[in-house]
Design a protein that fits this description.
This protein is an alpha+beta fold. The chain has four helices and seven strands, in the order βααβββαβαββ. It has a seven-stranded mixed beta sheet with strand order 1-2-3-4-5-7-6, with helices on both faces. The protein binds coenzyme A (COA).
Length: 148
């Protein structure tokens, strides 16, 4: 694999982010303007992964009270299974201040994402029935250990 860089997103990245979001989330995609709004929220962080200077994926997280809520993560299918998603999750935790756990919701039929989160140490803590229309949401979380 080439050189991977994870950095905070700028306005100029939002077109590529919204395009990938539409590709992987289809009917549940966010609008371009939703991502514009995220850049203005002080508790929100939008990270971009670049592989050899090519946009490869993004992750969006909210830092609220003692939790990081993972809102969105996607890696371009061409670049999946190269640990880019893992690198995005690790980088999200670098920005933790008072937060000591990361929480997320994933559709119960998204087996690849559930396998991905499990590989990173997330565990299932609950379920919300019919959260995504016909599919339930699995709630997962992971404790963040601070090195200090
Ligand atoms: C989930 C996603 C972000 C993972 O990104 P990625 O860069 O491919 O993941 P990684 O390469 O870091 O995977 C790390 C580990 O997770 C597991 N994993 C990842 N994708 C998997 C898959 N499709 N099937 C089974 N296990 C998988 C594996 O254990 C993998 O390690 P390995 O490749 O050495 O076996 C990516 O598949 C994606 O964008 N999916 C579509 C969007 C989505 O569903 N987002 C989550 C919504 S809640």
């Amino acid at each position: 694999m080439g050189k991977l860089i994870i950095r905070q997103a700028h306005y100029d990245d939002l077109e590529a982010i919204a395009r990938l979001d539409a590709l992987v989330f289809d009917q549940n995609a966010w609008s371009f303007n939703s991502f514009v709004n995220e850049l203005q929220l002080h508790f929100s962080k939008l990270l971009v992964a670049e592989l050899d200077a090519t946009f490869a994926g993004f992750a969006l997280a909210w830092y609220i009270a003692d939790e990081i809520q993972l809102m969105r993560i996607a890696v371009n299918p061409v670049f999946q299974r190269n640990k880019i998603g893992s690198a995005l999750i690790h980088n999200i935790t670098y920005y933790a201040q008072n937060q000591n756990k990361m929480v997320l919701e994933v559709a119960n039929n998204n087996t690849q994402a559930i396998a991905f989160y499990t590989s990173l140490g997330f565990y299932r803590v609950g379920v919300r029935k019919n959260y995504y229309h016909l599919n339930s949401a699995i709630l997962m979380e992971k404790i963040i250990y601070h090195e200090d």
